Amino acid sequence: MSKSEDLNSEDYLKLLSTFALDLLQKSSLDDIFWLIADRAIAGIGFDDCVIYLIDRTSGELVQAAAYGPKSPEGRVIVDPITIPIGEGIVGSVAANLKPERIRDTRLDLRYILDDEFRLSELAVPIVLHGECIGVIDSENSKVDFYTDKHEEILVTIASMAATKISDAMREEELQSTVRQLKIVQDMLAAQADELISAKEMADSSNRAKSTFLATMSHEIRTPLNAIIGMSDLIRDTSLNPEQVEYANIIWDSSNHLLNLITDILDFSKIEANELRISENTIDLKQLVEASVRVCTSANTVSEVPILIKFDPSLPECILGDEPRVKQILVNLIGNAIKFTSEGQITVTVCVESENLLFTISDTGVGIPSSDIEKIFSPFQQVDSSHSREYEGTGLGLSIARRLSRLMSGDLTVSSTVGVGTEFVLSLPLRVVSRQRAEPSDRIEVETDKKLKILIVEDNPVNRLLAVKILGQVGFTADVAVDGLEAVEFVNKVPYDLIFMDLQMPVMDGYEAMRKIRANLAISQPRIIVISANVQPQDVSNSYNAGADGFLPKPIDRKALVDIINANS
To answer: What structural domains and CATH numbers belong to the chain?
Structure first.
């Protein structure tokens, strides 16, 4: 009679009690699985047992720990195997979420030979929230070895371990993401240093400098997409206070760097006469309130109040380039916040003659009269002890004035040292009636349709990011690592929506889109380009190649969801 047959109910309860106490002390997947093998299984008295974990990437069961011949020397598994879900006895248990007890494996065609042939088998799923995360599998050389009591004890052990295993998996996933972000962040910092050095060397030729900055902007946007996106996803998970702080620092710093890169790219467009002004309907109150909200949400230091004053005679809507007007206002309000430590900031909007005036005044340190015009020069900052405390490219105000003049307006300033500063943005007043729906900040999928989605991205971190974002809103996606693989996928699967990168090895996104559009024998999907190539020519070339839409990197989650809603 084996040890397992000798154990009575009291022995089982003692075993489970000891196992539960030991389980509370474990935090890593490795420790949990080997605890099951070394303490629980050994305590039952089984001759052989293997604990499997479902690999979320491959969808297969992998051997994570073992007791018996598969692990003769500590935490090492001899000749580990993998089993697809649904195959074999172990795979069937994982698929059906039900334990199975096989009296004679010679009569079961599902039996998979591992290290040696055994005549009976007991497999129990590890289930959490209706999903299998692993399997405990034991085999014995005797026919009909396993009893109801054996099954009961394994089911209990699996149930006790499920939550700890799930928590450990999430923690390991989080730590892996944090490590990836750190690698990308280090790379980004090195590239940023290279960018600064290269910019200083290119000052002799504005056009050459602009071209170079645009290229470097693409190279920086790619890892920046991963940093902003992953840190944003991390902030939506269950974190301890220390992890929340780290995630917020990464997200805030990354967005700060994105703003700097955007300034540099906009400047290069202006220098090359490539920046174009668009026209749309602008809700004035929403515009100003949103601009203030952007600045206050990004500010974690200053507590200076911001007052908003609207002239009662203001029209509800005007015609203009809303993103560019908002860009100017955010720059001016952000500067006021940086240089004002006490008092208040006031944003006033009024009509004067045929012009619309946005006035941003503060009670900050002020600007010497000798430096007034310097602040509008590119790559220049006021050389004072106050301004040197603050970061920046020295491009923000230069871009703001140039944008205002591209919109047939102007940006002026008056200031007194120690009293404060006042910026006035003047734009032509063109009143229009409301022609658009109220904007919404909600990130919400409006369709129940199960879209077939393909992500085409060569960067592994950005692939993971896209999959995670889609997963948050209830969608799964296939992934292709280059254009050629994407074309092969499309020839086999009728996709509804494809998110396509542009710069990829083997075959780029342009060629992939042209091949897909040329194949009239397949169901034509909607193709949305997601790229760090954000120059006007890149956008135009994308549409010419067959794109239905264009999203710049870093990916905006709301914009991505809006695309899904629009194409469902």
So the answer is: 3-170 (3.30.450.40), 172-271 (1.10.287.130), 280-428 (3.30.565.10), 453-566 (3.40.50.2300)
